[in-house]
Amino acid sequence: MDSFETDLKFKGITEPSIKAVFIRAPWVESTGADVEVLAQITDEKGVAHPVAVRQANLLATSFHPELTGDNRVHKYFVEQICSELVRG
């Protein structure tokens, strides 16, 4: 996959969409039943592919949220994932 930037809808983050920077990043090929897809992109054939996923207290993205200056993905991680660990 080539490097590119695009706007994404990210489940759990309110509008506007987040800017996503992809640096030769692959998407998620498949997910299990216990994996929640938080964001996806659509390829040139119209097929949707996950690019942000969550499983319990784990969060993975195919893009680099730290490169945009928008901290909402990091805030989501702290509020949704880290706080869950504290609640135990």
Characterize this entry briefly.
With 88 residues, the chain is an alpha+beta fold. 18% of the residues lie in helices and 33% in strands.
Tell me what the structure shows.
With about 90 residues, the protein is of the alpha+beta class. The chain has one domain: Rossmann fold. The chain is built from one helix and five strands; from the N terminus they run βββββα. It has one helix at about 70-85; strands at about 5-10, 20, 35-40, 50-55, 60. The strands form two sheets. It has a three-stranded antiparallel β-sheet, with no helix packed on it. The chain has a two-stranded antiparallel sheet with strand order 1-2. Keywords: Glutamine amidotransferase. One of its GO terms (biological process) is pyridoxine metabolic process. One of its GO terms (molecular function) is glutaminase activity. InterPro entries: Class_I_gatase-like, PdxT/SNO.
Please identify the top-level CATH class. Alpha Beta
The CATH homologous superfamily is called Class I glutamine amidotransferase (GATase) domain
Instruction: Report the β-strand fraction as a percent range.
Output: 25-35%
H/E series: EEEEEH
Give the oligomeric state of the chains in this entry, treating copies of one chain as homo and distinct chains as hetero.
Answer: single chain
Low-confidence parts: none
